[in-house]
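Changelog note: in this version the structure field was regenerated for every chain. One regenerated record is shown below for reference.
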Amino acid sequence: MNASAVPLDPRDPRDRPARLTVGVVGSGRVGPALAAALRLAGHRPVAASGVSDASVRRAAVLLPEVPLVTPAEVLARAELVLLTVPDDALPGLVEGLAETGAIRPGQLLVHTSGRYGTKVLSPALHAGALPLALHPAMTFTGTSVDVQRLAGCSFGVTAPDELRLAAEALVIEMGGEPEWVEEDARPLYHAALALGANHLVTLVAQSMELLGKAGVEAPDRMLGPLLGAALDNALRSGDAALTGPVARGDAGTVAAHVAELREHAPAAVPGYLAMARTTADRALAHGLLKPELAEDLLGVLADGDSRPGGER
């Protein structure tokens, strides 16, 4: 495949990519799901690489009858190659594939790292490949559920200008929504997603543990409607959706929280204090927290850091 075969308008069926053979290097949770989505769009997965037992199982479920081979063999068989390895492993992988001559001119090389744009694929570009960065803004389970969740999922897209529409077309074919991200903005973009998604999991898991210690038999059932509403409100209204004792300036309640956490879950105190301070700052800036109440509240939070177990 060469640049002249790249589509001009992903909205026009006549300009969608030709049916491509697809390979996956790194059969973690992401690669097999994306390859399965591309198969639904008419492309043909032909090879994947993976060495762990979990990788083999994922490939067997999501890409049945697709052989597991070496990364070099994946590139030899596929016109479109998905590089779905951990961020820190990506630069070395690309350099190694380029040095060994595994990359072919005209080959579409797609990585799914949120951190990187296409500069990390420079060795492949010099070898004649067509570099694309397509990062799905979604958490993956490694099961067939992931393929369904790609419908409407936003992808952070970075590509050379002449390949932008080709990249967007591939995202649309997988059921996603392309969102352009400039090369230099990729680290900030990725930090924003990690801040929201990864830390959310930690907060929810910690909240469920504390509810269990409080005697709640079904923490997940209790939190589901509450957190669902909070997330929906936050996405709709941002800081205006803030509620709770910190946003109200209830210093006494916050002090009681800190005391209980210090007794029953001391490891949760630093996180509670850090999030409470950030919430207070945002509530103040948005006019939700009255300045006259903020002083006592911030005093409680500062005192929480000075107590045993709260040293920095």
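Spot check on this record: The CA atoms of residues 231 and 238 lie 10 Å apart. The chain has 13 helices and seven strands.
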